[in-house]
Amino acid sequence: xxxxxxxxxxxxxxxxxxxxxxxxxxxxxxxxxxxxxxxxxxxxxxxxxxxxxxxxxxxxxxxxxxxxxxxxxxxxxxxxxxxxxxxxxxxxxxxxxxxxxxxxxxxxxxxxxxxxxxxxxxxxxx
Length: 126
Fold this sequence. Notes:
With about 130 residues, the chain is α+β, with helices and mostly antiparallel strands. It has a domain at about 20-105: Copper Amine Oxidase, Chain A, domain 1 (2-Layer Sandwich), CATH 3.30.457. The chain contains 2 helices and 7 strands. The strands form 2 sheets. The protein has a 5-stranded antiparallel beta sheet, covered by helices on one side. It has a two-stranded antiparallel sheet with strand order 1-2. The longest helix has 12 residues, at about 90-105. The termini are far apart.
């Protein structure tokens, strides 16, 4: 499968040129790859993106252009912020090989444990 060349896609409000490249992949190819790797995903057809769940993190991947970003979950709750930064990949395979697979060998970070021995409580009046 060949990846398309970068093409001019306009200029943003700050005068920076935007470039776009097609992955030449279909949704079916992306689904097949994620299913083979046993990676959870949720399809957003209207946005032409897939939410990929990998190692308790969620990533947004646009199969038409290869752009992807990580949802922000800084507060430990289930409400995610959309990715502020997006990156380019040539295909779903490229994304997996260069970013997701190396995360499998990273050490697991344990949650921070409180070092307090007891909880302060007010003294009772005598």
